[in-house]
Amino acid sequence: xxxxxxxxxxxxxxxxxxxxxxxxxxxxxxxxxxxxxxxxxxxxxxxxxxxxxxxxxxxxxxxxxxxxxxxxxxxxxxxxxxxxxxxxxxxxxxxxxxxxxxxxxxxxxxxxxxxxxxx
Length: 119
Fold this sequence. Notes:
By secondary structure, the protein is mainly alpha-helical. The chain folds into two domains: 2-60, no CATH class; 65-117. It has helices spanning 2-5, 10-13, 21-34, 40-43, 49-60, 65-77, 85-101, 108-117. Helix 6 packs antiparallel against helix 7. It starts with a helix and ends with a helix. Pfam families: Retrotran_gag_2 (PF14223).
């Protein structure tokens, strides 16, 4: 959220490497200064904000099968009665995006079926 707040998220989110050097340095500094001291070992050799961010994601994002199963279970068991409509759809999309981030995308049609079946 820090990078979004200071309008530097595109330094780590963009697919191309056309980020302005000064903005990239600011984003790198923000990442390094906000990281816990034990994370510095992973950031030392990063030459850009994107590389630093990617390294942290690869190091700390739980991509285990139990994590994927828990996210899928949560998505399939989501219950509309626990939320208002906006929150319900947001929660379903959030779980779907987490699965996508772990390399297990849920197709839009399947997500719609899951959402509608719980109404």
